[in-house]
């Protein structure tokens, strides 16, 4: 299995080298020049929007195992399938979100965040049903990844002179979201509110 992942990674790398357009716009400027962008309030506001909003995906992803075994009361052998469904949703959302981010200023962010709120509520109410849970897992992965390309485009738009730093800040926001989502879900579980309560923590973040 690990060698399959390695092979896919190599193929992805070859595809990027072969088909990714070359542009001087991505070279960035000097380090001191790019660091000037951190003085801009709208950059940090977008980072906060990204970190809080995307944390919802991790408040779900982190707890997929308990969702399957505790909430839906199914065998643990279904966990890899649920993870695969979630991953397929992320791939689909990222593909569509990239197209939307190229055409519209904020639509990907607004539609993505709005849709995931509805899906989180559905999981919270009916996620104990596997036939509701699995489509919702696909949907959460898709809708959040639908929003992420718009976040990157907006960050770069706020600081076009610092594309390298904006890319790094976007990834930093996603890593912060990873922590916030897991922590928020853990707090609700520790409070004894039930396995599916992690989605309400995710909704609060949004």
Nutshell version of this structure?
The protein is mostly helical and 206 residues long. It is 79% helix and 0% strand.
Overview of the molecule:
The chain is mainly α and 206 residues long. Helix content is 79%, strand content 0%. It has nine helices and no strands. Helix 5 (79-103) runs parallel beside helix 7 (130-158) and helix 6 runs antiparallel to helix 9 (198-205). The model has no long low-confidence stretch (mean pLDDT 88).
- Structural class by helix and strand composition: mainly alpha
Radius of gyration: 18 Å
> How would a textbook summarize the main sheet?
none
pLDDT < 50 runs, ≥5 residues: none
Tell me the helix content: over 70%
Secondary-structure element pattern, one letter each: HHHHHHHHH
Q: What's the SSE blueprint?
A:
Elements: H1 2-19, H2 31-35, H3 41-61, H4 64-71, H5 79-103, H6 107-126, H7 130-158, H8 163-190, H9 198-205
Descriptors for this entry?
single chain, mainly alpha, 0% strand
């Amino acid at each position: 299995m690990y060698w399959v992942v390695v092979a896919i990674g190599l193929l992805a790398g070859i595809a990027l080298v072969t088909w990714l357009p070359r542009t001087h716009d991505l070279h960035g400027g000097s380090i001191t020049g790019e660091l000037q962008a951190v003085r801009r309030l709208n950059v940090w506001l977008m980072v906060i929007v990204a970190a809080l909003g995307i944390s919802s995906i991790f408040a779900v992803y982190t707890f997929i195992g308990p969702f399957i075994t505790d909430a839906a009361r199914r065998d643990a052998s279904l966990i890899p399938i649920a993870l695969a469904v979630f991953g397929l949703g992320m791939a689909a959302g990222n593909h569509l979100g990239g197209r939307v981010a190229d055409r519209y200023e904020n639509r990907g962010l607004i539609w993505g965040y709005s849709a995931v709120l509805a899906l989180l509520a559905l999981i919270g109410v009916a996620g104990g049903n596997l036939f509701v849970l699995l489509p919702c897992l696909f949907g959460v992965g898709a809708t959040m990844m639908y929003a992420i390309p718009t976040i990157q485009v907006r960050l770069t738009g706020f600081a076009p002179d610092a594309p390298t730093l904006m890319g790094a800040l976007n990834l930093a926001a996603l890593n912060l979201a990873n922590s916030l989502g897991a922590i928020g879900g853990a707090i609700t579980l520790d409070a004894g509110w039930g396995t599916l309560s992690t989605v309400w923590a995710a909704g609060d973040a949004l």
